[in-house]
Amino acid sequence: MRVFVMGARRWVVLADWPPPFEEQLWYLGPGGTLSRSLSVGTMPDRYRYDPANPTPGIGGPSLNMGNAGPKDQRKREDRADVLTYTSEALTDDLTVIGPLNVELHVRSTLQHTDFFVRLCDVSPRGRSKNLSDGIVRLRPDVVTKAADGSMSLRIGM
């Protein structure tokens, strides 16, 4: 199998899919941080969802070829109804090939809502280009709430 590695701009031949990998865990932190260390005892982040003003989708997989692929996400990331988490600049190259999963621990006052996650590569100039994304639709018959109302969602990307 041949896979094109976007950042390196080269083709890689893989014997198996998914390829052997080293799992990395990254954690959402206070102030929109993303790090390899878990922050304990922090307050949850909040946002208000307005179904009359949904976040527009641009980039990623799309039947509209003019809208597909890597696109600058900064306008969507600046919205008040979007939570964005950013790591420090990476000091070494990181090749991401294969399945990605995000585990979110959430609460919602709505019975039906969507949770959408996107992994982006941010350039030194601040341009945020989507690499992968995933979505899960919250429905009472699919997700079980804990006694405190929280839910654990696993979103494949």
Describe this structure in words.
The chain is mainly beta and 157 residues long. The chain contains one helix and eight strands. The strands form four sheets. Strands 1-2 form a two-stranded antiparallel sheet. It has a two-stranded antiparallel ribbon with strand order 3-4.
Q: Brief description of this entry?
A:
By secondary structure, the chain is mainly beta. It is built from one helix and eight strands; from the N terminus they run E-E-E-E-H-E-E-E-E.
| Average pLDDT metric | 90
The parts where pLDDT drops under 50 for at least 5 residues are: none
> Main β-sheet: number of strands, strand sense, barrel status?
2 strands, antiparallel
* Alpha plus pi helix count: 1
Distance between the termini: 20 Å
Our Rg estimate from Cα atoms comes to 17 Å
The count of β-strands is 8
Strand percentage lies at 25-35%
Please list the strands of the largest sheet in the order they lie side by side.
Answer: 1-2
